[in-house]
Design brief:
mainly alpha, 323 residues
Length: 323
């Protein structure tokens, strides 16, 4: 009924400053399209801040692995983030979500709280942060595909062309760096792509009915018992050496990437839509390359500047395309 009512309203109402058109005329969609919402710029900015925080995740994880084992790092990271999120929920006296939202929250928890951090951490034991970053650069296209299937959105042809070109640039960069051979770390990273894309899609959907920060906060709280159990099991078996790098890396991935970054990310996705927000992540691997050089002393691949130009042009194209 809403779709029928909307069509009737478009027949009767002309947008100020635009030519009048009927719903059946060829230019009706363009003539009656709503103006750009002021919130779209704010949503893009929030999503970009989230991407910036995520770009530091791999270097911070590499620092954390200097003092923790992979399983202890993931479990302690999740536990700390869940405690921060739970404290915020209690302080603001937030009521638990309705029962119908818990299945979606479980998907978010499985993807961004447990699956993606665990698989990427295991990959970073043998792969460099630069290599891992460019493989995960496929996440925007994967997220857009999951979003199209899950929410029924149909981005424009221009959007898909730009997204595919950006993904192709990332793939070419990855193949050139790895010599065309897939490693065990690559398999972990590809698995992380799939599970994270599903979680981003579900989280973006939930953020349209719940405040974005509550989506990730409840997902973290949902994982707290598992995180505590994991820490209790892994810490005695994986030696811990507390250094400045290890502590700083742990705190960033727990509070910055796992909670605060996802808060602004889900808020941004709710404001501008999942497909367009996901394309901002095309810049994430290139930002991670910069952090890898600045913080870890890794050598910047020669192909990085060319990939950066191609990816940034694709970002501009996807943001202009009507989704």
């Amino acid at each position: 009924m809403r779709a029928q009512n909307s069509a009737i309203e478009r027949d009767r109402v002309a947008v100020a400053g635009r030519p009048t058109a009927t719903a059946t005329s060829p230019d009706a969609a363009e003539a009656l399209a709503p103006p750009v919402r002021p919130g779209r710029l704010a949503g893009t900015l929030l999503a970009a801040i989230g991407v910036t925080s995520f770009s530091l995740t791999f270097p911070a994880t590499a620092w954390g692995l200097e003092g923790f084992g992979p399983y202890s790092l993931i479990s302690v990271r999740c536990a700390l983030a869940a405690l921060v999120a739970g404290a915020c929920l209690l302080a603001l006296r937030v009521r638990p979500p309705e029962r119908r939202h818990w299945a979606g929250l479980a998907v978010v928890a499985a993807g961004v709280v447990v699956g993606f951090p665990l698989l990427t951490t295991l990959a970073l034991e043998t792969a460099t942060t630069a290599h891992s970053a460019v493989v995960v650069g496929l996440l925007p296209l994967t997220t857009a595909l999951f979003s199209s299937i899950r929410t029924g959105t149909r981005p424009s042809r221009t959007f898909w062309i730009a997204a595919c070109v950006g993904a192709a640039a990332v793939i070419a960069f990855t193949v050139q760096q790895s010599g065309g051979a897939l490693t065990r770390a690559d398999l972990f990273l590809f698995g992380a792509l799939l599970i994270c894309a599903a979680a981003y899609t579900e989280g973006g959907r939930l953020a349209s009915v719940l405040p974005g920060w509550q989506v990730i906060a409840w997902a973290l709280v949902l994982c707290l018992p598992l995180a505590v159990a994991g820490a209790a099991i892994s810490l005695p078996y994986e030696p811990v050496h507390l250094t400045g790098h290890a502590v700083a890396g742990l705190l960033w991935v727990a509070v910055g990437s796992q909670f605060l970054g996802l808060v602004v990310w889900y808020k941004g996705m709710a404001m501008i839509g999942i497909p367009k927000a996901s394309q901002l992540q095309l810049a994430q691997p290139l930002l991670t390359l910069i952090w890898s050089v600045a913080l870890l002393g890794e050598t910047l691949p020669v192909a990085a500047p060319l990939t950066a130009v191609a990816v940034l042009l694709c970002i501009a194209a996807t943001q202009r395309a009507r989704g």
